[in-house]
Design goal:
Blueprint: E1 4-7, H1 13-21, E2 25-28, H2 39-48, E3 52-55, E4 74-77, H3 83-97, E5 105-110, E6 113-118
Parallel strand pairs: 1-2, 1-3, 3-4, 4-5
Antiparallel strand pairs: 5-6
Helix pairs in contact: 1-3
């Protein structure tokens, strides 16, 4: 099972580049000229593409707004630092999660740890 990703504009282009280098299918908000789109529009686009939304926007961690049972996965990179550090943290988290289905899963990537919240019943 290969993950596919939709990268929000809150993460650097380096994230898209490095994910592709790792062999993932990746599309981005910038490539679709969706900069400035609402969170709901970005979320809807990720769902349409059956992709895991990868973002630095903590609004996407709100499970009342984006319930786990209706999405293909959300990864929130929740740390400050250089773009290289943020992308390295993301790639490190993906290595830890390797092989796990992420549909309906919210992943919070923080400095030195990842938190995983699954929908009820999974």
């Amino acid at each position: 099972m290969m993950w596919r990703f939709f990268v929000d504009e809150s993460l650097p282009n380096l994230a898209v580049q490095r994910l592709r280098e790792e062999g993932y299918v990746v599309e981005s908000v910038r490539e679709l000229n969706m900069q400035g789109a609402t969170d709901e529009a970005v979320f809807a686009e990720a769902q349409k593409r059956q992709a895991i939304l990868v973002t630095g926007d903590e609004d996407f961690a709100d499970i009342t707004r984006f319930p786990t049972e209706i999405h293909h996965g959300i990864i929130v990179v929740r740390l400050q630092g250089t773009k290289e550090q943020r992308v390295a943290a993301l790639l490190g988290a993906l290595k830890q999660l390797h092989g796990q289905p992420l549909k309906g899963v919210l992943v919070i990537v923080e400095l030195g740890r990842i938190r995983v919240r699954k929908q009820a019943g999974i």
